[in-house]
Write a structure and sequence with these properties.
Blueprint lengths: L2 H27 L7 H34 L9 H25 L1 H11 L25 H5 L4 H17 L10 H6 L3 H7 L17 H6 L27 H14 L5 H9 L13 H14 L1
Helix pairs in contact: 1-6, 3-4, 3-6, 4-10
Length: 299
């Protein structure tokens, strides 16, 4: 394991242990009920599957990134400071687009949905990983390698920003200062992202910087009039099944592909946004949101 990743583990492991135990204690003392044993075990289980797959596949995706780095269009950066600032900003932007496509393309949503499937929201929810994501996540980092960022540094920055991404999975922090929420993803922003309320679906995709959502039109403030409900719009029948927790959306896709419709329509069931249907029997998040806004206008 590279030295930089060892430092990440040395810093993050005791930090996670401390804040999670503190949140569990506060949840118990304040009778919040933010944690249950089954959901916490499921979160740890999914994180272990993701980490194991990442380790198995790492040699392949690092080799691919190295190939692109060896064909880079920027040979060297003018200063170390500029190098590290730009790798952070561009990696965060790459993550935004990966995350957005995970939500707007059903094929990738079938992978990512696992992260959203819990009706609880606490720090361990951040470990509820999209198990198969290591198989394709690196593709979004290929432009960084072409721009002259070393693969080992790309992986390091992603791991470092993930620490922040996990820490925003909390209900104990209501709002951060206004200047903070202008620039950075806050717990409030990320609660919106995990909500099943129609208003909040497919919003706030950023890992560290919230500016991408504001630039590209996916930002949504948490509103008092619409308290967040966590989980999926359609709860799972077997939320703790060790296999179906990962495969349930793939099973739904297969059922849709069995319909007697043209091949092009079948492709749409795979690659259009979740909720798309050829006959209008189901609706996408954007369609549901338009209906919500129209109904609010009439009130």
């Amino acid at each position: 394991m590279p030295l930089k990743e060892q430092w990440i583990l040395l810093i993050s492991t005791p930090l996670y242990a401390f804040v999670i135990l503190l949140e569990i204690l506060l949840s118990h003392l304040k009778v919040k009920g933010y944690y249950t044993v089954k959901e916490t075990i499921t979160n740890v289980y999914l994180s272990a599957l993701n980490a194991g797959l990442d380790l198995l596949f790492r040699v392949i995706y690092v080799a691919i990134l190295l190939w692109f780095y060896n064909h880079r269009i920027i040979e060297t950066w003018s200063s170390p400071l500029l190098y590290w600032v730009m790798i952070f900003v561009l990696e965060d932007l790459a993550y935004y687009w990966e995350h957005r496509i995970d939500h707007y393309c059903r094929f990738f949503w079938a992978v990512h949905v696992t992260h959203h499937s819990s009706e609880e929201y606490n720090l361990t929810t951040g470990f509820r990983s999209s198990v198969l994501q290591p198989l394709y996540r690196f593709i979004y980092f290929i432009p960084l390698a072409l721009l002259g960022f070393q693969p080992i540094d790309i992986i390091f920055v992603y791991a470092a920003t993930q620490i922040y991404g996990i820490l925003v999975h909390t209900q104990f922090i209501k709002k951060m200062p206004k200047w903070y929420e202008v620039l950075l993803v806050s717990p409030s922003h990320h609660r919106v992202h995990h909500a099943s309320n129609v208003r909040y679906l497919d919003k706030n995709m950023g890992m560290v910087l919230i500016i991408w959502d504001k630039i590209f039109g996916t930002f949504q403030e948490e509103e008092d009039k619409d308290p967040v409900r966590f989980g999926l719009t359609k709860p799972l029948d077997q939320p703790h099944h060790p296999v179906r927790i990962v495969t349930h959306e793939w099973e739904s896709i297969i059922q849709d592909l069995k319909q007697p419709v043209p091949f092009t329509t079948k492709l749409k069931y795979v690659f259009m946004p979740p909720g798309w249907s050829h006959d209008g029997s189901r609706k996408t998040a954007n369609e549901l949101r338009r209906e919500l806004f129209e109904s609010e206008k009439k009130i």
